C-alpha cells in the first residue's frame, strides 16, 4: 500500500488545546506544523473538561487572533467564594492582585483553535489510529499513522511535539534511564454533573464541610457544572438526582446561605485525582507539553492553564532551534536535516540547548502549580483518616487564608496565575 508522506518543520501528536495552540503560534512565526489526533473534532467539542482560564490564557487566545469567543461568550470572574461549614468568604482577585479569571469551557477553547487551524489551511488528521513516533533520538524523527480513510501516512519533521494528553505515548519515548516520573494518587475523586438549571451563584464556590468537598461552577445561563468529593470506585448510577443535589446542598449548608438551583442532570462522571510530572520535558528531537508532561488534580483549575503556559515557554525555543537549523543548512546544504552537531544520518543527536531550556523553564512553573493544586486539594477535601482534630485543624488553616489579606492574596495570586 502507498504511504503518503508530508514534510514539515514540526510534527505534533495530539490535537487538544496544547497541540493546536502550539501549531497556530508556530505558523505565525513561519514554522510549518502538522497535527494528528485520535478522536474526531466533534467528540472533543462535546467533551466537558476545564472551565476556568487564567488571564494569561485569555490573552493568548486574544493575541493569537483565532477568533475566540472568550471575551463575548465567556464570563469574567473577579473573585471566588471559599465556604467552610456553611460560612462563606469571598476572595476578591481584582482587589488583591489586579487580575481576574474567565469562565469559558475548554471544549469551546478547543473548537475556536481547531476552526482557526482549519480555516488557515493547517494540516490536521482527525480520528487517526496506529500512531507511532520513530527516531526521536536522531535528526530525522517521523510520525506514522493510519488516517480516517485507512490510508497509511507519515509525517517527517525536524522536531516532534508530544501534546497527547495524560496517557501520553510520546513521553514513553524518553528512555527510563533519563526520565523521572514523579507520581502520586489521592484517596478520593470528583463526582461531576452537568445539569440544566440557571446559575446558583455568579462566581465559583469551593466548599468544605464534614461531608467533604463540593464545587459550584457554571457553564452558561441554562447549563451548570457541579462536583462533589466521592470514592474513586463510585458507580455514578448509584446516585439519584435528588441524592446528588441534597448532598451538595448539605456541604454548602442547609440553613440560610446559598440555595442550589436544581434541574435535570444530563451528564455524570467520576474524575480520579493524580499529580504527575515527567522530568525532563525534552529529549533528542522530542518535547512534551501540556498533560503529556504533567497532570494536576483539578482543584486549583491549573491543568489547561499550565498547558498554555508550556506553549508560551515552548514556541520561542522551537523558533530558536528551527532558525539555527535553517542557518546551518544555508551555510552547508550537505548537512540536510542535521543540526549543528551534524553526524551520519540516523546517528544519535544531543537534545538542543534551546529545548533543554524550555524544559527547565516549564518545569519551574509546573512545580509551583503542583504545589498549589496539592495544597488546595488537601485544604478542601476530607481525608479518609479525618477526625475531630483534623477537621478543626483544617478550620484553622481555612481561617488563616480567609481571615488575612496575606492569606487571601496567596490564594488569589496562585489561582489567577503567576506572571511568567
Ligand atoms: C473534568 C475535568 C475538569 C478539569 N477542570 C480544569 C479547570 O477548571 N481548569 C484547568 O486549567 N484544567 C482543568 N482540567 C484539566 C484540563 O482539561 C487538561 O489539563 C487539558 O485538557 C490539557 O490540555 P492538553 O492539550 O495538554 O491535553 P488534552 O486536552 O488531553 O489533549 C490531548 C489530545 O491528544 C490526543 N491523543 C492522545 N493520544 C494520541 C495519539 N497516540 N495520537 C494522536 N492523538 C492522541 C487525545 O485524543 C487528546 O485530544 C480538567 C480536566 C478534567 C478531566
UniProtKB/TrEMBL annotation:
Keywords: Monooxygenase, NAD, Oxidoreductase. Gene3D superfamilies: D-Amino Acid Oxidase, subunit A, domain 2, FAD/NAD(P)-binding domain. It comes from the Bacteria. It is an enzyme of class 1 (oxidoreductase). Its EC number is 1.14.13.2. The keyword NAD applies. Residues 325-353 are annotated as: Disordered. GO terms for molecular function: 4-hydroxybenzoate 3-monooxygenase activity; FAD binding. This is p-hydroxybenzoate 3-monooxygenase. The lineage of its organism: Bacteria, Bacillati, Actinomycetota, Actinomycetes, Micrococcales.
Amino acid at each position: 500500500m502507498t504511504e503518503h508522506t508530508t514534510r514539515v518543520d514540526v510534527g505534533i501528536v495530539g490535537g487538544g488545546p496544547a497541540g493546536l495552540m502550539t501549531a497556530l503560534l508556530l505558523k505565525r512565526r513561519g514554522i510549518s506544523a502538522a497535527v494528528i489526533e485520535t478522536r474526531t473534532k466533534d467528540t472533543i467539542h462535546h467533551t466537558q473538561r476545564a472551565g476556568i482560564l487564567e488571564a494569561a490564557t485569555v490573552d493568548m487566545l486574544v493575541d493569537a487572533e483565532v477568533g475566540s469567543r472568550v471575551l463575548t461568550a465567556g464570563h469574567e470572574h473577579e473573585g471566588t467564594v471559599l465556604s467552610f461549614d456553611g460560612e462563606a468568604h469571598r476572595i476578591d482577585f481584582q482587589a488583591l492582585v489586579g487580575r481576574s479569571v474567565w469562565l469559558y469551557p475548554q471544549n469551546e477553547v478547543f473548537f475556536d483553535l481547531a476552526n482557526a487551524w482549519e480555516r488557515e489551511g493547517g494540516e490536521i488528521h482527525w480520528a487517526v489510529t496506529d500512531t507511532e513516533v520513530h527516531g526521536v533520538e536522531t535528526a530525522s524523527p517521523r510520525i506514522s499513522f493510519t488516517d480516517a480513510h485507512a490510508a497509511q501516512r507519515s509525517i517527517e519533521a525536524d522536531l516532534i511535539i508530544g501534546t497527547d494528553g495524560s496517557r501520553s505515548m510520546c513521553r514513553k519515548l524518553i528512555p527510563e534511564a533519563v526520565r523521572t516520573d514523579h507520581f502520586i494518587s489521592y484517596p478520593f475523586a470528583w463526582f461531576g454533573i452537568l445539569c440544566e438549571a440557571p446559575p446558583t451563584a455568579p462566581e465559583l464556590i469551593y466548599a468544605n464541610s464534614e461531608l467533604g468537598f463540593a464545587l459550584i461552577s457554571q457553564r452558561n445561563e441554562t447549563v451548570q457544572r457541579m462536583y462533589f468529593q466521592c470514592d474513586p470506585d463510585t458507580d455514578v448510577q448509584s446516585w439519584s438526582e435528588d441524592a446528588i443535589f441534597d448532598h451538595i446542598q448539605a456541604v454548602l449548608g442547609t440553613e440560610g446561605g446559598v440555595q442550589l438551583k436544581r434541574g435535570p442532570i444530563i451528564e455524570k462522571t467520576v474524575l480520579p485525582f493524580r499529580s504527575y510530572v515527567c522530568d525532563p520535558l525534552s529529549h533528542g528531537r522530542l518535547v512534551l507539553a501540556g498533560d503529556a508532561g504533567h497532570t494536576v488534580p483539578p482543584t486549583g483549575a491549573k491543568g489547561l492553564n499550565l498547558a498554555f503556559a508550556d506553549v508560551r515557554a515552548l514556541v520561542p525555543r522551537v523558533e530558536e532551534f528551527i532558525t539555527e537549523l535553517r542557518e546551518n543548512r544555508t551555510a552547508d546544504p550537505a548537512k540536510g536535516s542535521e543540526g549543528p552537531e551534524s553526524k551520519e544520518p540516523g546517528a544519535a543527536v544531543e537534545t538542543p540547548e534551546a529545548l533543554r531550556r524550555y524544559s527547565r523553564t516549564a518545569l519551574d512553573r509546573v512545580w509551583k502549580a503542583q504545589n498549589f493544586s496539592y495544597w488546595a486539594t488537601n485544604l478542601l477535601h476530607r481525608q479518609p483518616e479525618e477526625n475531630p482534630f483534623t477537621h478543626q485543624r483544617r478550620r484553622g488553616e481555612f481561617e488563616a487564608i480567609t481571615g488575612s489579606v496575606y492569606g487571601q492574596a496567596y490564594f488569589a495570586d496562585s489561582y489567577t496565575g503567576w506572571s511568567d
